[in-house]
Amino acid sequence: MSINRKELTEMAQLAQLDLNAEQSRLIGQSLNQITDMVERIKKADTAQVEPMFHPCQFWMPLRDDGVTEDSHKEQLLALAKQSDDNFYLVPKVIE
Amino acid sequence: MINLSIRELNQLLAKKQISTAELSSVYLDRCRQFNPSLNALLHINNDINPEDLLTANQIDGLLSGIPIIHKDLFSTQGVTTTAGSKMLADYAPPFDATVVSRLSQAGMMSLGKANMDEFAMGSSNEYSYFGAVKNPWDLKRVPGGSSGGSAAAVAARLTPVATASDTGGSIRQPAAFCGITGIKPSYGRVSRYGMIAFASSLDQGGVMAVSADDCGLVLEAMMGHDDKDSTSIKTEAWQWQAPQQPSMKGLKVGVIPGWVEQLKDDDIKRSTEQALKTLTEQGAELIEVDLPHADLAVAAYYILAPAEASANLARFDGVRFGHQTSQQCDNINAMYRKTRSEGFGDEVQRRIMLGTWALSSGYYDDYYCKAQRIRRLISEDFKQAFSQVDVMAVPVSPEVAFKQGDKSDGVNMYQADQFTIPASLAGLPCLSMPVQPAKGLPVGLQLIGPYFDEQVILSTAAQFQMVTDFHKQMPEAFV
Annotated active-site positions of B, please? Predict the structure, then answer.
């Protein structure tokens, strides 16, 4: 299993990362090491085995469907680097 | 005083031989004195809040007035919570994590926040944006990770107790490297609300302290269902019942001879065998069990954990909180990318990329789903083992604390998680307790219990600690 440069570039785009050439080279190298390591799971016979997405062995509790908290708009907006008039400010979204 | 247990400290406070403020000062002075050489803490509360002191003095409980340090991924209202990352270097949450608020309600005094590997990704604490943590037993060595700051702080007695978290071994391995006791409860036992997420189906908050008894007391106060976390399970109240005598008669302890044989370091092997012998001397019966699929655990984990991390860390986009690039960006995607590449360290970016690969079209079934099926096999292996035994005793790590920089390539570190990851995948409670040191450095023994049975591992460890004193040993430079 080998991840090529094109796949690496596509993955970086999906992951919203801006990797420079040296980072790409190093990450590509270590991803190939890791994928070699994880290849071995393919050999296990799991044909009749259900995936286990979660380790909870009891039912997960649900809470009542109701409003539990007041608005914390000001506190939350204060954490943003840029906001204005109750909105987050970001660069242009629509070309 | 720094070697007293929580129960002993409580007695001093109850008899008014020391005040809560004086007790906090003893530990805060040690934090200020020793942290420059350890880098274990990212924040020290220079002044204990008078309201907290008042609250602690009004609460009648064993934990009232006992100092604690929180791993820096537990949200603390108004106090910077970084997760060891540049991304959150100036993030002060507007709320407390449930773990923090419950321990505060029990009267515990927060002394500060502990350093950690960035977003809990690492086994050496060399991946913190704020610099590596040093091991108090040898400052040239790592304390383990990712809860290395918490472990080093307890080992050097900067605090009697610290919170920590464990995804694939992040409590047990640093506890072993630093010669302290650390418990990862069952998945679902402790609320994850306000605990910054790495891998949501594996992360679990826990406790590090000198002894199993101290861990039990603090765990009792922090656990339990929380409406704010749907993965925290509703069960009957659990109370830590400390054993009164060391007899383990009737206790069936599962051992895996192959795991002990895999220990290439003869000193660690001897320490492990000697600890198992101590269990039998107290009346426990050792029974050989097998986890036939455990050799696939590391591979499965390094698909599943990065996959969950890549999804969890998508929230860090520079818009609502955390780091935002100062570079001019023409569009929002450019801003996201620059922000994330500046804010995340190399190891975090590597794991995000690995997770993105595992979840991408064409690989999802072959790797991600396959790894989830292997997780089921490992969980079934444990169920089979626990049909024969009450508790399992296995190594924590194949090595003692290694020197900083010795494993500069993170991939080399992954395989060393081989003994801690299987229980993590199955969501089982497990702890590390100190046994006979090797080459002057601490060694841990891991105890694993059936799902939702923390009592059995804590009791076994507490009984072991009644007849040994390895947990009381501390590094000379910090006495």
Answer: 71, 146, 170
**Beta-bridge mates of residue B287:** B254
Residue of B nearest to A22 (CA): B346
- In total, the C-beta contacts within 8 angstroms joining chain A to chain B are 180
Contact B308, B355 (CB under 8 A): yes
The band of B415, judged by pLDDT with boundaries at 50, 70 and 90, is: confident
ipTM of the complex in this document:
0.94
Reference B291, options B371, B386, B215, B209; nearest CA is: B386
Alpha-carbon gap, residue A18 to B18, rounded angstroms: 55
pTM for this prediction: 0.97
Closest CA of chain B from A32, distance in Å? 10
Q: Which residues of B354-366 are buried (b: 16+ CB within 10 A; e: fewer)?
A: bbbbbbbeebeee
Residue A83 contacts B where some CB pair is shorter than 8 Å = no
Q: Which residues of B touch A63 (CB under 8 A)?
A: 227, 230
Task: Answer whether B422's CB lies under 8 Å from B447's CB.
Answer: no
| B224-260 tens-digit pLDDT | 999 999 999 988 778 999 999 999 999 999 999 999 9
H or E element, residue B169: none
Cβ separation B374–A76 shorter than 8 A: no
